[in-house]
Amino acid sequence: MQLTVPYRVETIIQTLEKAGFEAYAVGGCVRDSILGRTPDDWDITTSAKPEQVKRLFRRTVDTGLAHGTVTVLVDKEGFEVTTYRVDGEYEDARHPKEVTFTASLEEDLKRRDFTINAMAYNPARGLVDMFGGAEDLERKIIRCVGNPLERFTEDALRILRAVRFSAQLGFAIEEDTEKALAVLAPNLKHVSAERIQAELLKLLLSPNPDYLRTAYEAGITAQFLPEWDVCMVTEQNTPHHCFNVGEHTLQSLKNIRSDKVLRLTMLLHDIGKPVVRKTDENGRDHFKTHGAAGEKMAGAIMRRLKLDNDTVRKVCRLIKWHDYRPKAEPVDVRKAVHMIGEDIFPLFLEIQRADMLAQSEYRREQKLNRLDGVDQIYQEIIREGQCVSLKKLAVSGKDLLEAGYGPGKQIGEILELLLEEVLINPHINKKEELLGMAKEKFPVPDN
Questions:
Q1: What is the pLDDT of residues 154-178, one digit of tens each?
Q2: How far apart are the first and last CA of the chain?
Q3: Signed CA dihedral, 174, 180, 182, 187: sign only
Q4: Are 145 and 112 in contact (CB under 8 A)?
């Protein structure tokens, strides 16, 4: 099998071989190349020790010497070069107690997580595939190298990585590997929130975000997202829905484009429903205030997972408003843009569409017609540059001060009143007209 290896990678491999060492491209770059994908990065494994690698290349960075990794810089591009190694005993289900360097490529490959990630490639020697990785790629299977219980015991994050790779590639998880997931899922408590967050986001941003169902069924999400597990057993006895809360969430994830804020919003948009669920005398469920409840819960979940503040703020605002339904009328839409925020209103429209398409057919045409109308009016507002916030108001606080109003609370009150009038009638957004309106409603105090 011939793979296309970048010139810089081939240069590193040849330099190591000329010095008497073995060297191979390894892991994900080999997997992706076989699949016909462009690898995000290229990793190299070698029989050379870190200090030997450093002597062979002019520019290197000590990335992780204790684990045998040196970053080699070629034309300002970095490539991780790691010595063949054998991991010692794992004490915390995440990190080996010690690492031993070895001269055996086989020993290095057998410590890796999945067969599809345990292949190596050398331009001269070709593919080294000791564990059937190429066959598993063809069969579209995620399978551990060796005993899955041992692999997952060594590193608990591999439990979530199995589902993530499955979602990214659209592969099934091999039977014994899947059984081991459920047995060892509780070990994820030893893994940091940051590492779990990174894998969860990769899963959510994959072509198959609904594969999160596999994580639920294996007891994986129970370890870091128990609130969502409750959604998976919360029914929605209402004509608007044909799935329970969790299945509705999974369907809505498939309906939205791959964007961190959008996918997180869809994951958590109904997280408050189990908390506020009420069933009336006819057996129909109601979920009033689930947006407000979900906003608080989602904020706590995302902070627990160590997500950045900007993402937390945007997702929380979208969840707060996701069920708000403005009429397809210009005044209503301008007020909605002001209330929800100019920065996220386009995302709000995407969220509502994905949400509707994951509901039952009940009144769907009516719902989508309203949303289409809102979208059309919003596009007109943007085209015309209509004022929907204080920053676009033709009058500023400085203008009011110059008109004779004293500093303080009244300035803010006047600006809010003027904005309210402009949201109703955008054509009055002219400085002189607004100042006249201000003086009429709030006479300038005598000095």
A1: 999 999 999 999 999 999 999 999 9
A2: 89
A3: negative
A4: yes
